[in-house]
Amino acid sequence: AQKITQTQPGMFVQEKEAVTLDCTYDTSDPSYGLFWYKQPSSGEMIFLIYQGSYDQQNATEGRYSLNFQKARKSANLVISASQLGDSAMYFCAMRPLNSGGYQKVTFGTGTKLQVIP
Amino acid sequence: NAGVTQTPKFQVLKTGQSMTLQCAQDMNHNSMYWYRQDPGMGLRLIYYSASEGTTDKGEVPNGYNVSRLNKREFSLRLESAAPSQTSVYFCASSEVTEQFFGPGTRLTVL
Question: Could you give the CA distance from residue A69 to residue A74 in angstroms, rounded to a whole number?
Fold first, then answer.
């Protein structure tokens, strides 16, 4: 079974500062992928970044980077130079990387980030 | 390239009515999903389809049915709507390193 834990229900960050959103996971699958999504107040789910469990380097996408620590089973999202538009809910998710068939994605409960001007 | 599209965006039903939520993707993904999102509950998987021609139950399948019409389309049907099915419904499609969501359908059952 897979489990994603996001322990920060809410976070505040000053505009232009960096912020780290925590995500820990538990899985028995040897190979898996980790995702982060942003959900603004408008409701859509926006895919931000992906990290594979066998990737040697941490994933980066613009101002987003994923601090992946496999031994600690953590996949924290780092947002650099926060902007007011970053205020949203952020979800961490995971899926096993099976050779075929269904690949269930498990989501955390989310962290609400508010950027303060 | 529209990504994942869903219709309708909003719907109000009376208890006992039926309806079908439509979803289509143009990314040639094999896997498609239906989720519901309730306040404080995060996303819960209703049904999924690993590939064209296959469907399976997720965490909360009761009261729903699905059809994977072809590789592009995956519909969700409520046969007899109940107030407990008031929620926001998301369709998604995925391959290994990406999963994209549709804009969501806000459904209210009175």
Answer: 5
Identify from A55, A104, A106, A111 which residue to disrupt to test chain B contact, counting B C-beta atoms within 10 A and taking the largest count.
A104
Sign of the CA dihedral with B21 first, then B26, B30, and B35 last: negative
pLDDT tens-place string over residues B24-70:
999 999 889 999 999 877 889 999 998 888 999 988 999 999 999 89
Q: Which two tokens stand for residue B75?
A: 């519909």
pLDDT digits (tens, 9 = 90+) for B87-103: 999 999 988 788 899 99
Residue B75 burial (C-beta neighbours within 10 Å; 0-12, 13-18, 19+)? middle
The residue of chain B with its CA nearest to that of A99 is B96
Identity of the residue in A97, A101, A109 whose CB atom sits nearest the CB atom of B96: A97
- B96 to chain A: which residues are within 8 Å by CB? 33, 97, 103
List the one residue out of B66, B20, B26, B31 whose CA is nearest residue B46.
Answer: B66
